[in-house]
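Subject: Interface between my chains keeps coming out wrong

I've been trying for a while to get a sensible model of this assembly. When I model each chain on its own everything looks fine, but I need the whole thing in one frame so I can look at the contacts. Pasting all components below, labels as-is. Any help appreciated, I'm running out of ideas.
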Amino acid sequence: MAANTNTDAPVPDILAHAAETASAAPSIHNSQPWRWEVDGDRLELYAERSRQLTATDPEGRMLTISCGTSLHHARLALAGWGWQAEVDRFPDGDGDLLARIRLAGAIPITAEAEQLLRTIGHRHTDRRPVANRPVPSDALQALAAAAYAEGARLQLLHVEQVDDLASATAHAAEIDAADPTIQNELSEWTGGERSQLGLPDEVIPSRPPQTNVPSREFSGSGSLQIGDNHDKSASYGLLYGDEDNPLGWLRGGEALSALWLTAVRLGLGIMPISEPVEVPAGRQILRRTLSYLGWPYLAVRVGVPADETEPEATPRLPASETVHKH
Ligand SMILES: Cc1cc2nc3c(=O)[nH]c(=O)nc-3n(C[C@H](O)[C@H](O)[C@H](O)COP(=O)(O)O)c2cc1C
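Reply #2:
Try treating it as a single job with all components included. I did that and got this:
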């Protein structure tokens, strides 16, 4: 354990720095649907509805999961700098104020917090096919434990359940393809050149990868070069929880961030698969996969990266757009 080295900085600066660090978090279509407000000794996380994908995500499920990943990044930044964060989720009940953070004193910095904080800059969505090597089962257990510690669960899928996920995803893809509003939204957010929001061509595969579970079809002509491997050695998990409501989704997002950063630390790649959860028919199939024991938040593909290189980074909004200090 290391001592806290950051005790002299003014509290609002520490909180703003944590919020800036949290802008590296993953979000649906890279919509970054969060707004951080620093108000004296409080850091507040708001849902930014102007960046909600209203056709794809009318209920705000994926928006709230995305905000949860940002919340976990901010918490992790504070822990990695030696601060105990007190987090109040939905302090005003329902609404767009998702969480309020206060510093509750200095704590020793654990090696785990420090390492996870360091992984933030190396975490990217990896849409390339994975290597033909199975993911070690103790690594999968570590991901499940990371999700569990954040109040959600990861069900690791066996072969038949991967088939369920594949059919739920294919079904959702058909629904999306037939819906012009969703298609318009997809071209608004994905493909082409992008410097702040959305997915640029560089992170979209130039041709459909060979895989058991179909990848999402984005707009534009992707330029990400991919190998010929088939994803047959990938593992799949379903992140889920007890509640299909904003608090459950927020915790689900925190769990997604925790398991993803843990995966990066273990040298594994993650690709979220949210399309089947976005449509009611897909959610129904996945509810059955969970034996009705919970509500699906999102699926993940976990794999040993086939490429030596880090996946391409996706751009972000400048911090001045997402972090406001009063
Ligand atoms: C809630 C959520 C849903 C996502 N769904 C998908 C998906 O279905 N397919 C996909 O390729 N990426 C998906 N992503 C990954 C985002 O596209 C990615 O996080 C974003 O573009 C930022 O890129 P980065 O993760 O490389 O920083 C999802 C991410 C989140 C947080």
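Reply #3:
Confirming on my end. Residues 26-30, 62, 65-66, 69, 124-125, 127, 199, 216, 271-275, 298, 314 surround flavin mononucleotide (CB under 6 Å).
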